[in-house]
């Protein structure tokens, strides 16, 4: 007799792929599949995707993963995805968000910065809801993007029947239910979860009063807590597409980083973390890949300027979330390395350029304190703006100390300095959180960058925190699976599910010998930030003066 194994499926739609993980109910991954998704970049600051492309990848991924466990019984499904804006037209048809109307491109990717002007305008209003996004709304959030659509593509805005955060689009497509996640709506749409309402006055004043007049039906009226279920499970259509039973329970969705946070915080404590305020106060989840998110939760709201939140129930029910982040981390490392003259030859020679660079850094450090070979080279990493703690999307990066040479050693030092710059950015975030009541001593980390030992070492040394890796390296997928387990009612609460399905793995501890070096380099890092602001103001002032003089020479009329 074949023994049937109960499993849950976690589905993670990231920036460039759809990943499917099949997990036992105690959190062991037993099968997986990964399929690429497309991104179009029609011009600077624009990034677009397709829900049809994404959904096709999801369904194919589920079928591929389940081939490896044909006798398993799927008890529940959980979804997470990037916080991207999906626009759905009449009858569920895609509405293009491309300025030239490119077909099927109906998703504004999270990293799209087309709405910078709209975000600036909203921030200038000083609205009360901004207190719950760290005081400053980001162009990566959905409200500025909706405002951009209403102004620049009014026909699309008017035709849209629904606007979804991508995680909620996936549960809608899976079940037909219009329910939305407290995670997405609170973190990216300005829903006030602690009051269970949208702010009518805010939407009217920023120019989106039509959403108020409609009773917010296009952005969500059924807002559900994480750990719940959506609709009646998989619809007949979605079940056929995935090759799963109709009615399979589907969990309330999460943003990808928040799904990772659910799994990571569960791994740092053997019991229900939600009952241990000390452990909560000392822990932060770091989800580090193309970009990075830093997630900390507390029993009571903590208002931290430049850090998103506090968000009520946005990751763990009955807890307040502070969400910091860096807009380009893995993307920045790739950019710095790929731009260097020595990179192409090293990649061709070794096949794995990052393994080769790590070995080169190790050789440069022989007999010295770890990390010190970059002592005269400094990278300010805000090449794609600063998400936290300065909330400045117009910030730009800097490299100081470049030599007149371009050897592999030079590349290795620059690579190390870039990783250190990112680590100091994390240290900046921890410092502002700790000033507002946290006492963070442990970083629980997941994501592609945790496969890089140099990234982990420098973050431990720069922050002084122990870094805990989960036993299951795909913590984002596991977080989605935990939501699937909750939809199936396998566990009585999300806190219990986190404890039962998440487990700690290796720990990287800081090297005390490197403390003085990083203290000094951190001071340089902060000076670089202040200097950048001063330089920008000097040049903006000069440009304003030039504009005035030009206007005086050529008066209108």
Automatic annotation (TrEMBL):
Gene3D superfamilies hit by this protein: 1.20.58.2240, 3.30.420.40
A Gene Ontology cellular-component term = cytoplasm
Location of the Carbohydrate kinase FGGY N-terminal domain: 8-260
Q: Keyword set for this entry? A: Kinase, Transferase
Pfam families for this protein: FGGY_C (PF02782), FGGY_N (PF00370)
Locate the coiled-coil region(s) and give their ranges: none
Q: Which GO terms describe its biological process?
A: pentose metabolic process
Looking up SUPFAM superfamilies in the UniProt record yields: Actin-like ATPase domain
- Keyword Glycoprotein applies: no
Domain (Carbohydrate kinase FGGY C-terminal): residue spans on this chain: 285-488
Q: Which GO terms describe its molecular function?
A: D-ribulokinase activity
What's the family? Belongs to the FGGY kinase family.
PANTHER family for this protein: FGGY CARBOHYDRATE KINASE DOMAIN-CONTAINING PROTEIN, RIBULOKINASE
Q: What is this protein called?
A: Ribulokinase
Task: Name the source organism.
Answer: Tanticharoenia sakaeratensis NBRC 103193
Q: What is the lineage of its organism?
A: Bacteria, Pseudomonadati, Pseudomonadota, Alphaproteobacteria, Acetobacterales
């Amino acid at each position: 007799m074949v023994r049937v194994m109960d499993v849950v499926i976690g589905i993670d739609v990231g920036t460039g792929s759809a990943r499917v993980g099949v997990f036992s109910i105690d959190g062991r991954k037993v099968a997986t599949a990964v399929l690429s998704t497309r991104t179009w970049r029609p011009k600077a600051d624009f990034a677009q995707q397709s829900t049809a492309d994404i959904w096709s990848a999801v369904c194919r991924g589920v079928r591929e993963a389940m081939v490896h466990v044909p006798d398993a019984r799927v008890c529940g499904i959980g979804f997470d995805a990037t916080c991207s804006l999906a626009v759905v037209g009449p009858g569920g048809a895609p509405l293009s968000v491309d300025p030239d109307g490119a077909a099927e491109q109906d998703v504004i990717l999270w990293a799209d910065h087309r709405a910078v002007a709209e975000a600036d305008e909203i921030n200038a209003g000083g609205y009360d809801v901004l207190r719950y996004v760290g005081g400053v709304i980001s162009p990566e959030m959905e409200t500025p993007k909706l405002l951009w659509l209403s102004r620049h593509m009014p026909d699309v805005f008017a035709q849209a029947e629904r606007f979804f955060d991508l995680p909620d689009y996936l549960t809608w497509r899976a079940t037909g239910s219009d329910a939305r996640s407290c995670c997405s709506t609170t973190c990216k749409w300005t829903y006030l979860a602690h009051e269970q309402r949208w702010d009518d006055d805010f939407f009217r004043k920023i120019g989106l009063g039509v959403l108020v007049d409609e009773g917010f039906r296009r952005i969500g009226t059924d807002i559900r807590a994480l750990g719940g279920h959506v609709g009646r499970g998989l619809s007949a259509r979605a079940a056929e597409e995935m090759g799963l039973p109709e009615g399979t329970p589907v969990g309330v969705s999460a943003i990808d980083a928040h799904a990772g946070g659910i799994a990571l915080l569960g791994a740092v404590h053997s019991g229900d973390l939600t009952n241990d305020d000390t452990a909560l106060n000392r822990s932060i989840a770091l989800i580090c890949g193309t970009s990075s998110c830093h997630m900390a939760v507390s029993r009571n709201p903590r208002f931290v300027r430049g850090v998103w939140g506090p968000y009520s129930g946005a990751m763990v029910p009955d807890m307040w979330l502070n969400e910091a982040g860096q807009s380009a981390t893995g993307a920045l490392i790739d950019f710095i390395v790929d731009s260097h003259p020595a990179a192409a030859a090293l990649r061709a020679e070794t096949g794995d350029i990052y393994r080769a660079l790590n070995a080169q850094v190790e050789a440069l450090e022989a007999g010295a304190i770890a990390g010190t070979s970059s002592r005269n080279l400094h990278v300010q990493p805000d090449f794609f703006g600063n998400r936290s703690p300065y909330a400045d999307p117009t910030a730009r990066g800097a490299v100081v100390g470049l030599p007149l040479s371009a050897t592999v050693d030079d590349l290795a030092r620059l690579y190390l300095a870039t990783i250190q710059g990112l680590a100091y950015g994390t240290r900046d975030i921890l410092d502002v959180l700790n000033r507002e009541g946290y006492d963070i001593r442990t970083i629980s980390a997941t994501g592609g960058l945790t496969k890089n030992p140099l990234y982990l070492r420098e973050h431990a040394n720069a922050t002084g925190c122990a870094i805990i890796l989960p036993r299951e390296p795909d913590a984002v997928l596991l977080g989605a699976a935990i939501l699937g387990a909750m939809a199936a009612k396998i566990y009585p609460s999300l806190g219990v599910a986190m404890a039962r399905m998440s487990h700690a793995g290796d720990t990287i501890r800081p090297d005390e010998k490197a403390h003085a070096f990083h203290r000094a380099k951190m001071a340089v890092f902060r000076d670089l930030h202040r200097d950048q602001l001063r330089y920008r103001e000097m040049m903006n002032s000069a440009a304003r003066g030039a504009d005035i003089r030009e206007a005086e020479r050529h008066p209108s009329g």
